[in-house]
Amino acid sequence: MQRRTMLTAMALSVGVPATLAAGLGPAGAATPPDTLVIAKNIDDMITLDPAECFEFSGGEIVAQMYTRLVMLDPKDFSQLIGGVAESWEVLDDGGRLAFKIRPDLKFHSGNPVTAEDVAWSLQRVVILDKTPAFILTQFGWTADNVKEHVKATAPDRVELTLVNRFAPTLVLNALSAGVGSIVDSKLVLEHEADGDLGYGWLKNQSAGSGAFRLLAWKAKDAVALEANPDFYLGAPAIKRVIVRHIGEPATQLLLVEKGDADIARNLSPDQIAKLTASPDFKLLAQPKQSILYIGLNQKNPLLANPKVREALRWAVDYEGLVTNLLKGQWQVHQSFLGDGMFGALNDSPYRLDIEKAKALLAESGAGPELKITFDVPNTSPYIDIAQAIQGSFGQAGVTVELIQSDQKQVLTKYRARNHDMVLMYWSPDYLDPHSTTDYFANNPDNSDEGTAKTIAWRNAWDIPELSERAGEAALEIDPEAREQAYLDIQKEVQASGAYILMFQQVENSVLRANVSGYVSGPTFDTVTYAGVTKS
After folding, report:
1. One domain for residues 88 and 139
2. I need a surface site. Which of 151, 159, 340, 430 has the fewest CB within 10 A?
3. Is 209 in contact with 180 (CB distance < 8 Å)?
4. Per-residue confidence at 463, pLDDT binned at 50, 70, 90?
């Protein structure tokens, strides 16, 4: 590129104004003081429509562009605060919730945010029925009845009637998920095609009222955002954010070293140690609720054998991976609720025991020639973890064929139930244990046409009785009884589920020393750019 930096070329390629692109300067120069540049692997981004987005990177971006009906307080993520809703009240003993809409709130387009926008946004999620729709349809809302149960009753008031009753705190937490993002209905409907509610258009656009608006997104290249000066919590201090897709940690290291990026998000432990030895950089280590696990497709007769699944749990070197490879970025955690979540099981009974794994495989009757394919994202640390597991499984007598693809391709195959084993991550959609329990322990219809696209369904784990118990736990009002229900469910999943639950994330981000106010938060979509400043 001669002396024209990759950063400048990227900025122009995604439509950032030429004046900004020109200001990004020569290689090795600091990024502009009003622009935050993040180097991160974002190859899992599929859509920016909050009714469809269910990937880590996309969810992070959507969270910057939209205001949700209610929000997690970025200063204390254990607390809910008003978003588009200024306040709310619980009616009819929890059967109905009413929300007062914040006055004078505007979308990026300049259109006012109304109660009709709120009702339409939630209705749209249910009617489109994309992957995350279950977060709302669990309340008994369907395409046929949602307009009856989710409606604006005044210009500044929305009422939600629950067909299936849940604890009000659970409902409010669910509305703080990405599907609770309030969309500019007037703008989106201007782009409607063949009754699609603007779905085709909104995949690559934004129509929110959040801290930032979308300038451009180019897949596997970059996302560019511009600050919303009218954001209801105050205008962001940083004027623009560019999230660059940099899949290779070595390239991320180079960019942040030279000043072409302000934050690097996917560095290896050794790279982090190298950078943070200098006063020019600092480490933000944030415990997350993200869980790393192996999905075991029960359509494969080998993996449907309980003895085989148990054997594989004893063939993972959990401590070795954490100590030698993951080094502070993940910790051993063998249940699906992360440490810190209400009801989390923190017992980790499995360790590497090759002889025990061999004995269980012999008892299984599966035969001597055991071969499994293993789908894995082709980036660090996932491929490194998969190769280590391939080695330890081989010691136990199981031949593993690695299939490496980008995260988008792995997710597409996983969602179609076309894998044998898959290395995958999970982060809750909202901070209530039901969010994760519903995904790991609920599969009401195990047919390929099943509508609840949970992780249990993806792995074809047919669990009608456990599904019923998971639903009952969400309805339990007594805190102690509810906690015990989640502990019992986790113990069953840990011992016999269609997964090998392994690690909980501690996200390590390296920031240049002049960057402050970046918030990672406990989940994939609690990352917050709005408070970032650069000195």
Report:
1. yes
2. 340
3. no
4. very high
Domain that holds residue 412: 287-507
**pTM, full prediction:** 0.83
Closest to 502 measured CA to CA, from 288, 293, 287: 293
What CATH number is given to the structural domain containing 371? 3.10.105.10
Is residue 244 situated within a structural domain?
yes
Say if strands 421-426 and 281-296 run parallel, antiparallel, or are unpaired: antiparallel
For the cut 70, the answer to whether the pLDDT of residue 326 exceeds it is yes
Is 120 in the same domain as 259?
no
Residues 245 and 306 placed together within one structural domain of the fold: no
Q: Are 325 and 384 spatial neighbours (Cβ–Cβ below 8 Å)?
A: yes
The number of folded domains in the chain is: 3
Summarised one tens digit per residue, pLDDT across range 431-446 is 999 999 999 999 999 9
Question: What are the tens digits of pLDDT across the range 380-413?
Answer: 899 999 999 999 999 999 999 999 999 889 999 9
116, 247: one domain: no
CATH number at residue 141: 3.90.76.10
Closest CA relative to residue 96, chosen from 9, 168, 22, 7:
168
> Which residues have a Cβ under 8 Å from the Cβ of 30 and sit 6 or more positions away?
259
Q: Are strands 35-40 and 240-245 parallel, antiparallel or unpaired?
A: parallel
For residues 331 and 393, membership in a common domain is answered with yes
CA-CA-CA-CA dihedral for 117, 122, 125, 126, to nearest 10: -130
Q: Which residues pair with 91 in a beta bridge?
A: 96
Strands of 311-432 (E only): list them. Answer: 330-332, 370-377, 398-405, 421-426
